[in-house]
Amino acid sequence: MTDVVVNTTAAIPVAHAPTRAAEARRLLTLTWTLALSDWKFRFYGSVLGLAWTLVRPFALFGVVYFVFTQIAGLDKRVPHYGVYILTALVMFNFFAETTNGCVQALVTRESLLRKMQFNPIVIPLSISVTALLNLGMTLIAVFIFAIGSGVYPTWTWLELPLLVALLFVLATGVGMMLSVLYVRFRDIQPIWEVVTQILFYASAILYVPTTVAESAASYYRMFLCNPIPAIFTQMRRAIIDPHAPSITHAFETPAYALIPLGIIIGIFSLGLWFFQRESPRVAENL
């Protein structure tokens, strides 16, 4: 009798671990899908739709512009002052929308975290991308206003994507930290609302950094170490007034301009490390 040997190894499928490239593609796909869904859902059933993204910054701009030009007369000292405060308002609103949206992001998406298996970092990243989409739509209106005010495009406008990218990295890093901290400490939300208000007045939105140099020169460099006014300082020169000081000239010592850049990288790295450390325990803490 002849023995029959059956090769069973070929019938057993071998499970291959996903490569890092495949994981990165899946993470980016999930982030974009969630961000786009949130962005569309925000205007679902709305008559004006995307126009609502312009209401808040332009309404606040109208009040600020009237007070600081007609009453304070700052437009006489700052060229294209209206364009500056509108652009700064829009960019700061992006930072505030990202960070405030990230605070409760993990808690509000608790069911999603429990039902699906994916890297939780997708959630704060999607919040940042949604805010970035809103920023892009609002900047179109800002550019129209700028051109109508006599500020015309130049090659230095190409710096804007880099400045927005730096603000995106900063906001995302802060947002990641806030999202995991809120899971344990619900006081984070009111605390961050107060911090956001402080940052609003400390970030050279209603004024330009040169006014700080005139009134409090000893605090000037410390003030510019804050990444947000540092970004707005460079934005003013690149987009609005080519005669305004760049961030390197504002510091007088060009090497000091690396300080706000280092703070941005440090905050993002800290936020990423802290999120990756705490995120495995998020589901059980919710």
UniProtKB/TrEMBL annotation:
Every ABC transmembrane type-2 domain range = 48-278
Bilayer topology = Multi-pass membrane protein
InterPro entries for this protein: ABC2_TM, ABC2_TM_bact-type
**Spans traversing the lipid bilayer:** 43-68, 80-100, 121-148, 160-183, 190-208, 255-275
Superkingdom of the organism of origin: Bacteria
Report whether Ribosomal protein shows up as a keyword of the record. no
Q: Where in the cell is it found?
A: Cell inner membrane; Cell membrane
Q: Keywords of this protein's UniProt record, alphabetized?
A: Cell inner membrane, Cell membrane, Membrane, Transmembrane, Transmembrane helix, Transport
Q: What is its main location?
A: membrane
The UniProt family comment states: Belongs to the ABC-2 integral membrane protein family.
Protein name per UniProt: Transport permease protein
What is the organism field in this record? Paraconexibacter antarcticus
